[in-house]
Amino acid sequence: MNMNKHRVSALMAVIALFAGPAARASGSDNPLLLMVSFDEFEWRDTADGDALAWRGEAWLGKDRDKALLKTRGEMTDDATEEFELQALYARAISAWWDLQVGWRGDFQPVEQRNWAAIGVEGLAPGFIETELTAFIGESGRTSARIRGSYEMLLTNRLVLEPELEFNWFGKDDPVNGIGSGVSNLEAGLRLQYIFRRELVPYVGLSWEKAFGDTRRLIEAEGGDASDLQLVAGLRFWF
């Protein structure tokens, strides 16, 4: 009987030896985290006057799986020019890339549009932060977005970030001023000062240009198809 007790004790010790580190890793090395970040929260000097623009996200999850909420938009004194919200599930498919699927809502000044979204986000070669997303909407609507940005370290605190974004639509949506084909290009250049990692003020330029049927719809309403804007804002996370 004593021999059996010793064997059981030895077996339990071996199990504890191997299971202990695994339990600690699952409990502390991959915790459930919540993060809120805004890459852009800025004032813009647009052709229609002063505007507030933002692009940010919040996520809840672990290293591999996350619930993700994205928002972007622009407001002037007269109207909400753009308000977009995405609710996504994100799953890491490699060390550098996440697969994202879910819903996107465009809360336009005229009519709301809903889309199913699928895409990838991560670091392309050259450390270019990249988003590639396809959208399928109601009534056979389709859309795609390509966005890239790159951080150029000038000093320990000064960072220059160029960015580029294209939007494409499969069919006309004249109610919301969108034409088929490549709809618009947005290019930005922002000079950031790293006051703290969590709080980064910046200044820069943003250039927006509409193309094709979108350009014609904008000009028919008396708008400008191209706009170069001075911007100033904050990048922050918590």
Question: How would you portray this structure in words?
Answer:
It is a single chain. By secondary structure, this protein is an alpha+beta fold. It contains 2 helices and 13 strands, in the order H-E-E-E-E-E-E-E-E-E-E-E-E-H-E. It has helices spanning 2-29, 212-220; strands spanning 33-46, 49-61, 65-76, 80-92, 97-107, 112-124, 128-137, 142-149, 152-153, 158-169, 181-193, 199-210, 226-237. The chain has a 12-stranded antiparallel barrel.
The end-to-end distance, rounded to whole angstroms, is: 59 Å
- Biggest beta-sheet profile: 12 strands, antiparallel, barrel
SS element count, helices: 2
Mean of pLDDT? 89
- Specify Rg, calculated over alpha carbons: 24 Å
The stretches of 5 or more residues where confidence is low (pLDDT under 50) are: 1-26
Question: What are the secondary-structure elements, in order, as H or E?
Answer: HEEEEEEEEEEEEHE
Question: Can you count the beta strands?
Answer: 13
Placed side by side, the strands forming the largest sheet appear as 1-2-3-4-5-6-7-8-10-11-12-13
Features:
about 240 residues, alpha+beta, 13 strands, globular
Task: Summarize the entry for a quick read.
The chain has two helices and 13 strands, in the order αββββββββββββαβ. By secondary structure, it is an alpha+beta fold.
